[in-house]
């Protein structure tokens, strides 16, 4: 799926750049899952949207893919649980998908490769065709969708997706997915859709339904066997979908599990202040003594807090004072958000050791937060719930078009289709814009600008494949003035021609495999395009 709640990539869902992120800039960063926007300053994504830098987690990734090593995959949301599962041979999943609006091109190959790499590392792999979204959001006819769906699947198989171990599906043919989308839709609100996507009174209902379907796509792997860490590889334009899917996965949970220190409810700021008071007071007590709420209130009254916490401190003091001699003790709290009463009763029975049962929540003592989260998930699944783990995501850079600017399927010269004749691919690379200087003399003197060169990106993203040495050689020779653009493009053009020839031969071999799979490429559905 895209960087949405649905894994999929459309024309712009590729990555950009293999060198470290530059600080530079634009005044505004726009993220639009269905638009044609690019991200001019990736660092703004860290600052404005909370995307984390992938370099920070890279040491924890076993056998990292070259797209990770070269900085093409530049960001993530909560990828740690997936990396940990892969490192420890524990259950994990990867899911992404493709909106069949045209032929697959070299940008889509990034997502194909990310799915396949995770599958090779032991994750359950899912690839989907976002045909409901293509019909409702892009106005594609079903005949067009059927034609392009086959092409995407053939390329995915040709590049190494193991169909026997993995799962391929179309949104329109997956009833279990549609049932989940219905349930998720009951937890979403139109106001959210309006805020996140700009939906208004002119937006067709089918488009809104397709968003719920994308949310279901991202959670679908957790319907199989058990809840598990799941990663959605996408371009950063799809991040709004990921954020909404993560929110909805939490809303579907029967229980909210938090840390607490007293029987009354607190917000995050109040809870942190009470924790500080407890830690300070408990350090001076004997084992048989307890911190009391009124003691914690006095401690907070006697200590200064940051100005922005003044209101929270006053509120915490009031609550502690009202509780009086009640002990302040660390605990985990199981708050029953929704779900059957039987689930709440089952949770009470499942908690071993000391516990306190209140109206709507249970406090358990001597249990850590991770243990409590796992117990809540088990009880939920045993009582008819989903037990979802929030999906994770990784983000790749947008690829520059061969003519400069954005790579787009609507500009044939800007991209290379995986279906292009190998000779045509050769010619497109030979005609590509470069980061070279005006003359060979200046190139030798000043060096080329590899960081702004679409041809260098071809090496880093595709042509060098797993050979880091080749990618580094091209870069260093370019910026050092040893490599001239003509020779560089010739080498790249030959490699592109060989890649396309090899890939298309494998596509032909994959046709027989695709025929044997349980996926219908003739939808037999009625209806015109559904664009707004």
Automatic annotation (TrEMBL):
Gene3D superfamilies, per the entry: HUPs (3.40.50.620), Tyrosyl-Transfer RNA Synthetase (1.10.240.10)
Motif ('KMSKS' region): 406-410
Biological function: Catalyzes the attachment of tryptophan to tRNA(Trp).
Pfam families: tRNA-synt_1b
NCBIfam families membership: PRK12285.1-3, PRK12285.1-5
Motif 'HIGH' region, residue range(s) on this chain: 100-108
Keywords tagged on the record: Aminoacyl-tRNA synthetase, ATP-binding, Cytoplasm, Ligase, Nucleotide-binding, Protein biosynthesis
Name by which UniProt lists this protein: Tryptophan--tRNA ligase
SUPFAM superfamilies: Nucleotidylyl transferase
Catalytic function, reaction form: tRNA(Trp) + L-tryptophan + ATP = L-tryptophyl-tRNA(Trp) + AMP + diphosphate + H(+)
Location(s), subcellular: Cytoplasm
């Amino acid at each position: 799926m895209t960087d949405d709640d649905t894994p999929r990539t459309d024309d712009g869902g590729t990555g950009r750049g293999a060198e470290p992120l530059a600080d530079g800039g634009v005044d505004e960063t726009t993220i639009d899952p269905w638009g044609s926007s690019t991200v001019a300053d990736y660092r703004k994504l860290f600052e404005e949207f909370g995307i984390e830098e992938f370099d920070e987690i890279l040491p924890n990734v076993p056998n990292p893919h070259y797209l990770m090593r070269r900085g093409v995959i530049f960001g993530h949301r909560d990828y740690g649980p997936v990396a940990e599962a892969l490192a420890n041979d524990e259950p994990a999943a990867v899911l992404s998908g493709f909106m069949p609006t045209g032929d697959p091109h070299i940008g889509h190959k990034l997502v194909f490769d990310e799915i396949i790499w995770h599958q090779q590392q032991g994750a359950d792999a899912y690839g989907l065709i976002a045909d409901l979204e293509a019909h409702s959001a892009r106005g594609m006819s079903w005949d067009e969708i059927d034609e392009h769906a086959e092409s995407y699947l053939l390329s995915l198989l040709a590049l190494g997706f193991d169909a026997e171990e993995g799962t391929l599906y179309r949104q329109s043919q997956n009833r279990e997915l549609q049932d989940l989308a219905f349930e998720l839709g009951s937890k979403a609100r139109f106001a959210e859709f309006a805020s996140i996507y700009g939906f208004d009174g002119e937006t067709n209902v089918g488009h809104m339904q397709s968003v719920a379907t994308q949310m279901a796509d991202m959670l679908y792997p957790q319907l199989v066997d058990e809840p598990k860490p799941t990663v959605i590889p996408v371009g950063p334009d799809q991040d709004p979908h990921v954020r909404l899917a993560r929110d909805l996965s939490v809303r579907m949970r029967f229980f909210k599990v938090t840390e607490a220190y007293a029987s009354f409810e607190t917000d995050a700021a109040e809870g942190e202040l009470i924790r500080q008071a407890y830690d300070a007071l408990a350090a001076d007590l004997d084992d048989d003594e307890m911190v009391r709420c009124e003691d914690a209130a006095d401690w907070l009254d006697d200590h200064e807090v940051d100005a922005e916490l003044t209101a929270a401190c006053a509120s915490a003091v009031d609550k502690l004072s009202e509780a009086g001699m009640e002990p302040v003790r660390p605990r985990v709290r199981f708050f029953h958000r929704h779900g059957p009463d039987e689930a709440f009763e089952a949770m009470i029975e499942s908690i071993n050791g000391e516990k306190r049962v209140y109206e709507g929540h249970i406090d358990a003592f001597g249990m850590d937060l991770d243990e409590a989260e796992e117990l809540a998930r088990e009880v939920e699944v045993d009582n008819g719930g989903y037990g979802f783990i929030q999906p994770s995501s990784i983000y790749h850079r947008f690829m520059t078009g061969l003519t400069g600017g954005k790579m787009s399927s609507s500009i044939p010269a800007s991209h290379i289709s995986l279906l292009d004749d190998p000779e045509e691919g050769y010619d497109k690379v030979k005609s590509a814009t470069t980061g070279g200087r005006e003359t060979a003399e200046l190139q030798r003197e000043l060096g080329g600008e590899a960081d702004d060169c679409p041809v260098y990106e071809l090496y880093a993203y595709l042509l060098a494949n797993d050979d880091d040495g080749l990618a580094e050689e091209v870069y260093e020779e370019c910026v050092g003035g040893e490599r001239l653009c003509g020779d560089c493009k010739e080498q790249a053009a030959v490699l592109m021609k060989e890649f396309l020839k090899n890939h298309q031969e494998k596509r032909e071999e994959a046709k027989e495999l695709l025929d044997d799979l349980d996926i219908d490429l003739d939808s037999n559905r009625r209806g015109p395009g559904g664009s707004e």
